[in-house]
Structures are given as structure tokens and as C-alpha cells.
């Protein structure tokens, strides 16, 4: 918190009025009590505390809603969850050759349909991947079709892309000619991004296209259904 003192009582009164309602710490009480209330050491304490208040603590977990809505009568949502440090209870995966996957942070993709988290059977860290810091390129260029049934091939589903930085939005074209557009959203303070589009039950996908901010098509995929 910012604390105030001054060289004379009149200036001190102005400072108190300017910072009225702020709780003062022990160092401020010592600086404003007794005959040494206006000693030269008081401004040093004020500057130090004011500097500390200008740099709030960075949150250890940052969440960002990528998309949400209602489809087939069910509420759906996709959220990216970034852990700045590896959370308690999470263990880095091991490769077949015995080495451990690198990573100092964790990026989780939380997907819900009808209040049920997709892949919840896999535990709290299902659909999470280790990353290093806030700009790990390994978290980009992935795309998947997710659902609660038949490995995402039936029922209400979610198409989620973790695109490259130049992708502004994606368009999923359905078999009945309906286009579903989804805008790319980025987790604040990171380069981790995604877009999410709901796919209704009984519909198939004809194409998935991604575009930049100038509406130039960057990719064209016909392998989904």
C-alpha cells in the first residue's frame, strides 16, 4: 500500500487526506508518531511501499474462456487454464525412452458439455500439457474434435483449434451448408490461444478453414466428419 508523510504538519494533513481510508503498516505508524514523526527516514519508507504497490502480485493460475453457448439443448464451454508453475499433484509425463517431458508450467484445455467435463475419467490433469513459460511454441498448431460419446464422433461435439499466431478465426462448414465461425482468443499475458466451435448431433463436417485478420484463408481441411 502507498503510505504518506511530509516535512511539516500542514503537508502531512494533505497527504493523509489524499490517502484516506488506507490501512497503515507498522513502519508508517512509527514514522508518524512521537517527536520523530517528520524525520528524514519517513519518505524512504513511503517510496518503498509505493513502489511495491505499483507491482501487484502476478496470479499463479490464469483462466480464459475461449467460447461458450448452447447446442442441442446443452450448455457448452471451452476454457484455457494456464498454471505458471507445475501444480501440486501433477507429474511430468515420461517418454517411451525413459526421459521426462520438459516443462515448467502447465496448460489445460477444459471442455464441458451439459455440465460434464470431457475426459474427466482421466483425472484432474486430463487434456493438460506441460509447457515452458508463457510463450512455448509446442502449444500451437493443434486441432481436435471432442465429445462425450464415441471418441467425439457422435452426439454434441466441440471442434477446438490451438492455432498459430496469425489465425484470427476459424469456420467449420457443416453438411447442411451451415457455417460455424469461432474467433481466436488468447490467454492474457501469454501466447496460448484457441478457438472453439460447437458441432450439433447428427451433423457432419465438410471443411474446416482458418483465416487471418484480413480474411485471407490460411488453411483448408477436409479430413473431419
Describe this structure in words.
- The protein has 3 helices and 13 strands; from the N terminus they run αααβββββββββββββ.
- By secondary structure, the protein is mainly beta.
- The longest helix has 13 residues, at 41-53.
Which features would summarize this protein structure in a list?
mainly beta; five-stranded antiparallel beta sheet; globular
List the helices and strands and how they pair.
Elements: H1 9-18, H2 26-31, H3 41-53, E1 61-71, E2 74-83, E3 105-113, E4 116-117, E5 128-131, E6 142-149, E7 154-162, E8 169-174, E9 179-183, E10 185-186, E11 193-199, E12 205-211, E13 217-221
Antiparallel strand pairs: 1-2, 2-3, 3-4, 3-5, 6-7, 7-11, 8-9, 8-12, 10-11, 12-13
Describe the structure in brief:
This protein has helices at about 10-20, 25-30, 40-55, and strands at about 60-70, 75-85, 105-115, 115, 130, 140-150, 155-160, 170-175, 180-185, 185, 195-200, 205-210, 215-220.
Our estimate of the beta-strand percent is 35-45%
Helix content: 10-25%
Which stretches of 5+ consecutive residues score pLDDT under 50? 1-48
Q: Per the principal axes of the C-alpha atoms, what is the gross shape? A: globular
* Number of helical segments with 4 or more residues: 3
Question: Major β-sheet, in short?
Answer: 5 strands, antiparallel
Nearest-integer average pLDDT: 82
Total strands:
13
Order of helices and strands: HHHEEEEEEEEEEEEE
Q: Measure the end-to-end span.
A: 56 Å
In terms of structural class, how would the helical and strand content be classed?
A: mainly beta
Our Rg estimate from Cα atoms comes to 26 Å
Amino acid at each position: 500500500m502507498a503510505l504518506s508523510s511530509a516535512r511539516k504538519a500542514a503537508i502531512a494533513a494533505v497527504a493523509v487526506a489524499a490517502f484516506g481510508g488506507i490501512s497503515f503498516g507498522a513502519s508508517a505508524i512509527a514514522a508518524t508518531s512521537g517527536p520523530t514523526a517528520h524525520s528524514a527516514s519517513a519518505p524512504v519508507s513511503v517510496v518503498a511501499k509505493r513502489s511495491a504497490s505499483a507491482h501487484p502480485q502476478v496470479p499463479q493460475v490464469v483462466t480464459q474462456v475461449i467460447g461458450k453457448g448452447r447446442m442441442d439443448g446443452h450448455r457448452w464451454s471451452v476454457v484455457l487454464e494456464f498454471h505458471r508453475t507445475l501444480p501440486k499433484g501433477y507429474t511430468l509425463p515420461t517418454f517411451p525412452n525413459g526421459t521426462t517431458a520438459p516443462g515448467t508450467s502447465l496448460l489445460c484445455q477444459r471442455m464441458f458439455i451439459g455440465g460434464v467435463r470431457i475426459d474427466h475419467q482421466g483425472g484432474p490433469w486430463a487434456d493438460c500439457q506441460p509447457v515452458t513459460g508463457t510463450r512455448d511454441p509446442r502449444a500451437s498448431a493443434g486441432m481436435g474434435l471432442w465429445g462425450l460419446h464415441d471418441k467425439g464422433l457422435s452426439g454434441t461435439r466441440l471442434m477446438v483449434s490451438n492455432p498459430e499466431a496469425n489465425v484470427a478465426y476459424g469456420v467449420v462448414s457443416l453438411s447442411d451448408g451451415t457455417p460455424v465461425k469461432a474467433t481466436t482468443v488468447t490467454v492474457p499475458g501469454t501466447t496460448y490461444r484457441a478457438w472453439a466451435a460447437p458441432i450439433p448431433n447428427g451433423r457432419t463436417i465438410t471443411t474446416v478453414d482458418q483465416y487471418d485478420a484480413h480474411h485471407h484463408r490460411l488453411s483448408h481441411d477436409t479430413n473431419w466428419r
